[in-house]
Amino acid sequence: MSLWTNISTAAARLFGPPNSDDGNGRAAKVDEAKLVAALVALGAKMAKADGQVRSEDIRAFRQVFRTDPQTEATIGRFFDLARQTTLGFERYARIVAKAFRAQPGILEDVMDGLFHIALADGIVTDDEAKFLETVANVFGFSEREFKRIRSAHLGQDADDPYLILGVDWNISDSDLKRAYRRQAAANHPDRLMARGLPKEMVGLATHKMAIINRAYAQIIDERKARKPLLT
Questions:
Q1: CA distance 85 to 53
Q2: pTM over 0.85
Q3: Domain 157-231 bears CATH identifier 3.40.50.720
Q4: Fewer beta carbons under 10 A from the terminal one: N or C of the chain?
């Protein structure tokens, strides 16, 4: 097994294999080395986004991007190289976006990991926020979707249940239920555990599920309270 295959295996435990097919029922070969390098670089440059890479940032990176003894040294060396500057992070984001363009749930996992690193010291600076917003844009998330992801980590806009569910205020009850089920399925801890995410990320999923459930319940309660006024 080659060195890069070892690293790719470590990455697959966190993010899962890219969803691609060569048209003959076989998974198309992806430049795994390039993809893993992009994931590591994004994490390293996220750690650098506020201008200084601290021990907390490195620890958060290791929690998100798990390695085994065979790959830790190589990933560590690439991390050290990538963290020297944030320059070029958009290019790495585009590589990840292309690999997982058919799997937005995995791209959101990556965003969650980047937020985890950004919050390692307890705050998200303006530079870090800009970094995260730019990556989300490259990944194809809309402004509303990014706000929803951000609210799960920072609590901002957490009082807007429609934003949390990613829907408009005038959505029908049936479409609201479908949107809620879609969000709940995408963020259920069991699904993330099946993808092999570390316990730190599974804990976040539990928190996100609580926010999603509370948002849906809030909207339902508000609509029930308004119905007598509409009759």
A1: 10
A2: no
A3: no
A4: C
